[in-house]
Design brief:
The protein is mainly α and 99 residues long. It has a single domain, classed as Winged helix-like DNA-binding domain superfamily/Winged helix DNA-binding domain (Arc Repressor Mutant, subunit A). Helices cover 47% and strands 4% of the residues. A two-stranded antiparallel ribbon has the order 1-2. The longest helix has 14 residues.
């Protein structure tokens, strides 16, 4: 019966190496999404602290927006989450894929 229960860790390691808990995540009312906050939410989902659906519901995100954050972190790390540099990092990634 235990395999049917969702077991979540009490904390995970955040993008800056600090422990993250549900209480230390950005508040659900967050309007201004800076790089650190986006990376914290992505790390919480990757570590199992939150499910993807839970994160999208909690922060009023579309699945597409959240997955774009995940892809940006996977491809370029935290700098990839910078809105002002999205095109630059996308171009770099596409060039790397060609060669």
């Amino acid at each position: 019966m235990l395999e049917n229960q969702k077991i979540r860790p009490a904390q995970v390691i955040g993008p800056l190496g600090e422990p993250l808990t549900l209480d230390s995540l950005p508040p659900p009312s967050t309007q201004r999404w800076v790089v650190r906050r986006k990376a914290e939410v992505v790390a919480a989902v990757a570590g199992g602290l939150l499910g993807v659906d839970d994160a999208c519901k909690r922060y009023s995100l579309s699945l597409e927006e959240f997955t774009s954050w995940q892809r940006a972190v996977e491809r370029s790390g935290m700098p990839g989450l910078r809105v002002t540099r999205i095109k630059h990092y996308r171009d770099v990634y596409e060039r790397q894929q060609r060669y």
